[in-house]
Write a structure and sequence with these properties.
By secondary structure, the protein is of the alpha/beta class. The protein has ten helices and 14 strands.
């Protein structure tokens, strides 16, 4: 299978002349699952919309292999599938009717071929038995899977999904991520999210974005090695937590059975009260965005 590349060069975007959403974004994304991880307001959606040619940058370029995406948006859209963070549906229309409508708009005019395509897509996103139900009866997870079916019309080479699992229950989230995992074997899939677990389950490569800038990117296993031998954990009380926040870079804090457990970053070995642990992707994430913030 040919490997494709999406190349992002020096993207800048400012809103209202003062709000800097993107500040010099450079990324190379190849065939497979790629995770874009960052807090809300970090610039993820702005970046996704620029790649999808829905928003113009102030400066910068995007290439898909040799194709200049921003100068040839119509050509690129033939290769693109996009599932935005929110999309509307007609609640009283069946999923089959709606997907057929989009298929006709995409140019699938032969009725027999269109029926085969729609049946294939509903099967692919595990909605075949629910394809005749009204969209208003769909759960949140089913709507997201339906959105993937729309995005897959035309067999795109690049698929962008923006915050797809927010609000889904654990079962729906797992089904959705399993579908993305399968799709990501054969095309570029960019998963933009603030949920670390989504990236950890799916992506071999990721970039962490914060305040409009890429703070780190690379393979997940390589990013984990950056913190190896420097993450410590221990149980503390509320008073100790305040002191720890001042002395260390706090990477995580959780309540377990009424007890507070913290993990911190330290270049120097800590005393025997601290337990050295292998870093998690969540701890890597908080390290690079400036530390964990949580008030008990």
């Amino acid at each position: 299978m040919k490997e494709n590349f999406l190349i992002i060069k020096d993207l800048h975007k400012t809103y209202d002349g003062k709000i800097k959403a993107l500040n010099g974004i450079n990324l190379t994304i190849k065939t497979g699952m790629f995770g874009l991880l960052g807090p809300n307001g970090a610039g993820k959606t702005t970046l996704m919309r620029i790649i999808a040619t829905l928003l113009e940058p102030d400066k910068g370029e995007v290439f898909y292999n040799e194709l200049n995406v921003l100068k040839n948006p119509i050509e690129f859209k033939k290769k693109l599938g996009y599932l935005p963070q929110e999309f509307g549906v007609y609640k009283n229309v069946s999923a089959y009717e709606m997907l057929e409508h989009f298929a006709i708009l995409k140019g699938f005019t032969d009725k027999k071929e269109r029926r085969k395509l729609l049946d294939y897509l509903f099967d692919r996103v595990n909605l075949f038995n629910d394809r005749k139900r009204k969209l208003g009866e769909y759960s949140g997870g089913m709507k997201q899977r339906f959105g993937i079916a729309i995005a897959l019309l035309g067999n795109p080479e690049v698929l962008i999904v923006d915050e797809p699992t927010a609000g889904l229950d654990p079962g729906e989230r797992k089904r959705f991520l399993n579908i993305l995992s399968e799709i990501g074997k054969e095309r570029i899939v960019i998963l933009s999210t603030h949920i670390v677990d989504d990236i950890e389950e799916l992506s071999d490569e990721l970039a962490i974005i914060n305040k409009g800038e890429i703070v780190i990117s690379g393979k997940v296993e390589e990013l984990l090695k950056h913190l190896e031998g420097r993450v410590y954990v221990k149980q503390v009380n509320k008073e100790e937590l305040e002191k720890i926040k001042e002395e260390y870079k706090l990477l995580n804090a959780t309540l377990r059975g009424g007890n507070i457990w913290v993990s911190v970053y330290s270049d120097k070995p800590l005393n025997e009260k601290w337990i050295l642990k292998s870093p998690s992707l969540e701890e890597v994430y908080f390290y690079y965005i400036g530390g964990f913030q949580w008030e008990f």
